[in-house]
Design a protein that fits this description.
Blueprint: H1 16-22, H2 42-55, E1 63-69, E2 75-81, E3 84-86, E4 89-95, H3 99-106, E5 109-116, E6 121-131, H4 134-142, H5 146-154, H6 165-180, E7 189-203, E8 211-218, E9 221-227
Antiparallel strand pairs: 1-2, 1-5, 3-4, 4-7, 5-6, 6-7, 7-8, 8-9
Helix pairs in contact: 5-6
The structure holds flavin mononucleotide (FMN).
The site of flavin mononucleotide has 15 residues, from β2, β4 and α3.
């Protein structure tokens, strides 16, 4: 049985429901968003929002949820880091053999979600997803810090870890391999790109007059539309 030092919730005087209802939301100064002044493509607006998030001190503004669909049609989601946004799409790096890697190999569709809470901003990206060329993945792997390369080489990401010492042994083996040859490649490490078909920018407002702007792609053209909050 797993022992836990966490205090049990029912030792507290307040119910979870009451605690949740009492939590404030958007109770801070939030930026204004004028959809009329936005660029023609969502990438340009995303990059400018990202820069504003960095300037505002948002913690890990490049952390995003990646949602995928498994072979039974069941959605799955997890947090990843955004690696790049360019004309190849919105990129992330992971193990092709992981759960998400297998899911996108089966269903090439994905959604990304960003939440910059300090600014009350959300960005949603929906589209198709594909692995980039192996050279891009290899270059991305080489550019990672040693500890990240060792971790990737050692990991059978998402497989069941039946015996925790297996992980220590795999890390020691990977560490030795990288020490012997710093350019040890990792065939499993893959950069994927999401090609968006729609991108929504959402600016929260304390009075619930949230502003939503969606870009929808039709062929090579982006159309912009406002959505009811
Ligand atoms: C802030 C944050 C950043 C993360 N970045 C990555 C990442 O860039 N790549 C990755 O494979 N996993 C990353 N993870 C771990 C994933 O959330 C996830 O646990 C892992 O990729 C296995 O997912 P899967 O079993 O659905 O394939 C990150 C987790 C957090 C909380």
């Amino acid at each position: 049985m797993i022992q836990t030092a966490c205090p049990l919730w029912h030792d507290r005087a307040v119910s979870i429901r009451d605690l949740l209802r009492g939590l404030p939301v958007f109770a801070r100064p939030l930026p204004r968003f004028a959809p009329a002044d936005t660029p023609g493509s969502p990438d340009a607006l995303f990059v400018s929002w990202l820069a504003e998030a960095v300037d505002a001190g948002v913690v890990e503004p490049h952390a995003m949820t990646l949602s995928t669909v498994d072979g039974d049609g069941l959605p799955d989601t997890r947090v990843l880091l955004l690696k790049e946004v360019d004309d190849r799409g919105w990129q992330f790096a992971t193990s092709a053999g992981s759960a998400k890697g297998r899911q996108v190999a089966g269903t090439a569709a994905a959604a990304l979600g960003f939440y910059w809470r300090e600014q009350g901003r959300q960005v949603r990206v929906r589209g198709t997803v594909a692995a980039l060329d192996p050279q891009t993945s290899a270059a991305d792997f080489r550019a990672r810090p040693v500890s990240s390369r060792v971790a990737s080489l050692a990991s059978e990401q998402s497989a069941v870890l039946a015996d925790p010492p297996d992980l220590e042994r795999a890390l020691a083996t990977a560490e030795a391999a990288v020490a012997a040859d710093p350019d040890t490649p990792c065939a499993d490490h893959t950069v994927y790109a999401v090609t968006p078909t729609s991108v929504e920018f959402w600016q929260g407002d304390a009075d619930r007059r949230h502003v939503r702007l969606r870009y929808r792609r039709s062929g090579d053209t982006w159309h912009k539309e406002l959505l009811w909050p």
